[in-house]
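Protocol step 4 of 6.
Sequence for Glutamate receptor (Nicotiana attenuata) entered exactly as in the expression construct, tag removed. Do not edit the line below.
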Amino acid sequence: MKFLEAVSLFVFILVLQNRHGNCQRPNVVNVGAIFSFDSVMGRAAKTAMELAVSDINGDPSILNGTKLNLVMADSDCSVFKGSIEALQVIEKQVVALIGPQSSAIAHMISFIANGLQVPLISYAATDPTLSSLQFPFFLRTTQSDWYQMAAVADIVSFYEWKEVIAIFLDDDYGRNGIAALTDALAKKMSKISYKLPLPINYNLSDVIYVLNQSKSLGPRVFVVHINPDSQLRFFDAVEKLKMTGSDYVWLMTDWFSTTLDSFSPKNESYLSTLEGVVGLRPYIPQTIQKRTFLSRWRKLQRNELVNSGLTAYGLYAYDTVWVVARSIDNLLQQGGNVSFSLSSMLNGTTSDKLQLGKLKVFDSGELLMNILSQTNFTGLTGKIHFTPDRNLIGSGYEVINIVQQEIHTVGYWSNFSGLSISPPKAVKNKEMAVTMINQNLKIVTWPGGKSEKPRGWVIANDERPLRIGFPRRASFPEFVTLNNDSHQVLGYCIDLFYEARKLVPYDVPFRFQPFGTGLANPNYDELVTMVADDVFDAAVGDIAIVTNRTRIVDFTQPYVSTGLVIVAPIDNAESSAWVFLKPFTPEMWGVTALSFLIIAVVIWILEHRVNDDFRGPPKRQIITMFLFSFSTLFKTNQENTVSTLGRMVMVVWLFLLLVITSSYTASLTSILTVQQLSSPITGIESLITSSSFIGYQVGSFAYSYLRDNLNISPSRLISLRSPEEFESALRRGSGNGGVMAIVDELPYVELFLQNRTDFGIIGRPFTKSGWGFAFKKDSPLATDMSTAILKLAENGKLQEIHEKWFCQLGCPADRRRDSEPNQLHLSSFWALYLLSGAVTLLALLVYLFRIIRQYMRYKRKHADPSSPSNTRCSQAIYSFFDFIDEKEEAIKRIFAHDTCQAQTNGS
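Step 5 output, C-alpha cells:
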C-alpha cells in the first residue's frame, strides 16, 4: 500500500513538472517568411521585416523575453519553388508564415497551411478569392483587389466611360482581379469590352503584341493590372507604338504606384514617358510613426544599406511582423503552447527523399488564427483590424496623376465616401450617401497634356474606317440605291445619314459596303445579323426596328414612323348611312347654312315695309322669314319678293344655289359610284380568316410577322419584288395566280399608291414601328446619331429631306389624308359666295340709305316745336324703328298729304 502511494505521488509530481514546463515561454519562436527577394515588393519588404524583428526583439513590453526568429525563403516569383521553400520553412516548426506576395503562390501555400494549421499572413497577395471559406488559415494585411477594382469602377463611372479594355497577367492575381473589376463595372452600367492577357514572364515583344491587338478596337480606356516592374517595360511598348495621344486613357492599379515609389528620388527621368497616366496608391495616413520610420529609411538609403524606396507594401510588411508578434504574445499569455504533432493525413506517406515526416501540425494554430483575426492596434499603415472574411479594413486609395514628371494626388477613394478631394480620414465620420453628385476629383492631366476629359473610344480612323452596310435594293430605289455608273450610294436614308453625321461632334471616317446583288431586295434580318457578327460596324437604310433585331444590335432614334398596312383593290364596299354629308367639307356645310340665315334676314328687311307676306305678328314673321329662305332650295316658296332690291338679291342667291346644288349632286354621285367599288377586306382580322393569298415585299419583316405572330400559313404568302409585281398581282386577284391584298410597311405603300388611284389602304396600320440605323451593341455612336436625328427633326431638316425625295408630285402622306377626293371645298366656291355677299350688302346699304332719308324728311315735317330739343338717344332709336315698321304705302300717303296741304296753303 505504501508502495502504491509512493508511485502515485511520484507520477503526480512528474505531471505537475511537465505542466509547469509547458507553461513556460519558449526562448525562441520561429516565424517563416516566403517572398521574392529580388523584386520591387520584395526588396522593400525584406528590409522592413528585418527592421520590425529588430524593433520587436528590442522591445521588452512584447513577447516578454521570447526572441522572434524570422526564417526567410526566396520564392523567386515561382509557384513551384515557392511551394518547395514553404515546405522547407514549415519543417523548422514555424508558428506562422508571412507572405507570399504572389497571389498564385498564396493559393498553393494556403492548402499546405490548412493541412498543417499554420496561419498564413500575406502583406501583398490581393487576389479577392483568397478570402473565401476555402482558406480558413489565410489572413490578409493589405487591401483586397475587391476594393481596388471598386475604386477603378468609380473612376470609370465618374468620367462616364461605358467600355474599357483590360490588360492583365494571365495568373490567379490577374484573372481574379479583372473578374472583380467586371462585377464592379456592371454595377456602374459599364463593362470590359475586351480582355487582353499577358504571360507571367512577359517581355517587351509580348506587350507590343497585346497593344497592337488593342489598336484595332474601339475603346481607348485601358485598365492595366500587372505586377510591379522596375523597368516599366509596359510603357516602353506604349511609347514605341505611339499610344500616348489625347485619345488614350491609361488607368493603372497599385502596381504602378508601387513601382514608382521603389525608385530612387534621384532618378526622375523615367516619369517623362508617363505623362497623363492615372493610377491608384494605397492610402496611408500621415502619422508621427510613419514620418519617423520614413526618416529612418532615408538614413539607411544614404548609408547605402537599402537600395529601394519605401513602398506601401514595405509598410504593410513591417506591420505584418508586428501583427504576428502581438498575436504570439497574446497566445502565450492565454496559456497556449508552441508545440507540434504529427499529422494523421501524412501517415503512410513518409519518404526519406521527401522528408514528409518532418512536417508537423501546429497544435495551437487554430487559436493563433482566431487571435490574429481579432487584431486591433495602430501601426505604420494606420488602424489595423479585419473584416469577418479576414480582409484588412483598409483606408482606401489615393488617385495619382503624372504631370510634368511629377506625381500629383488628384483625389482619394474609400468604400464609404467614394471619390473625394479630401482624405478618407476627413470624411469618415460624416454620414453621406455615395452618389454621382458628391463624387469629385481635382483636374486631371491626360495623355497629350490636355485637361479635357478624353472621349474614351475611337469608333474609326483613317486606317480602319467604319464599315457601313446598306441594302442594295431592287425596288423602291428612292430609299437607298447604288448608282451603277458613278458607284455612289443615293437615297432618302443616305441623305439623312450624311446630315446626321454632320451633327456628330467628332470625325467618323467610313466607307459604304453593299449588301445584296441588286437583282432582288436583300434579307434585312441577315443584314442586321452581320452587324451583330462584326462583319459591318453599322447598317444604314430602310431598316425596321423590330423586337428580334433589337436583341442583337442597337438602333438609333427612329427617323420614320411606320407600321404594316394592307393595300388592296377598292371594290364591293357598303355605302355609309351618312354618305350624303360627304360631298361637302364641314367648312362648306357651315358657310352654306350661314348663308341661308343671312339671306332670310336680309330679305325680311327688304320686304317687310312693302310685302304683306312678311308682316303680321312677330312669330309669323320669323316663321315666314326662314321658310322663305330654305324653300328657295327646292323652289317651293309661296311668298314672292316685291321690292326691286329684294329681287336683285334673290337673282344672285338663286344662281349660287343652282351651282351649289348641281355640284353637290355630281359629287354625291361620284362618291356613291366609287363606294360601289371598295374592297371586301375590312382589316387584318378579315384577311387572316380568309383563305386568299397575301403578298409581301421580298426582304421585308412582314413575312416573319405574318407567319410567326399572326400564324398565317406560309403557303398563303406570296413574295413580290417590285411595285409592278404588286400591281399585277392585285389586279389578277387571289383566284387567278395573284393576291387579294398586300401587307407592307406604310412608306412603301404610300409610294406605290402615288400614281395608282384604283388601290387603297384598308384600315389603319396594325403594327407600330419605325426605321433606324443599326449599330453594334453598346456602340456610343448610336447614342450620338440618335441625338443628331432629334436635332434634324427639331430644325426641320428631316422634313426637307423627305420632301426632296417624295414630294415632287405631292407628298404621299398629304394625299392619303385627303380621304374623300370628291369632296367640295369652300375654296372652290369662294368667288360665288363673295359675289352674293357683295350684292346682298349693297342692297342692304341702299335700303338703309333710302329709309334714313325718309325718316329725316318725316321728322322735319312732323317735329313738335314744343318738345325739348335734347331728346334722349333711346327715344330717337325707338322712334326710328317705329318708322321702319310702318308700311311703305302709309309713309307715301303721309308725304302726299303733306305736299297737297303745302300747295293749298301757298295758293
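Step 6, annotate. The longest strand covers residues 406-414.
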